[in-house]
Predict the 3D structure of the following.
Amino acid sequence: MPPESPLALTVNGARVDVDVDARVTLLDLLRELLGLTGTKKGCDRGQCGACTVLVEGRRVNSCLVLALTVAGCEVTTVEGLASAGALSPLQRAFLEHDAYQCGYCTPGQLCSATAALAELGAGAPSAVTPDGTGAPILSAEEIRERMSGNLCRCAAYPNIVDAILEVGA
Ligand code: FES
Ligand code: FES
């Protein structure tokens, strides 16, 4: 059995100390070792976005991140988006707009949308922001671009965009 290394990080506000094999991904750490199965494994190769979580507030495909590389970081999964038993505004908006369908991709969509709105709020341009340098304006085009790494095979895209637009407005 390969040697394991100690890893300390914060997950959804709680300190976590574990020993992990250097080959374990953040996704497998969350699901298999910590039992946080809200984050889903779709393609396991960076193509679907189902495994998206936040590391230091920025979204990452957790299937592509080795767990040991997030030592000392703050990780937020879908389980951490609600607080004190109350859904986040995006979670509520997804419900109201019928943007939850299969439920498999939704955790990644919610984490990604949370960070996308923060990026917009911070003025970070995307590939569709005019000139690529100016301050982005909340629009369906910006949301579609920023959510393009999260696939929804049942085509709830219009409802997802509507939900995110409502919360970002
Ligand atoms: S499971 Fe990570 S991108 Fe698909
Ligand atoms: S809601 Fe998950 S594939 Fe569409």
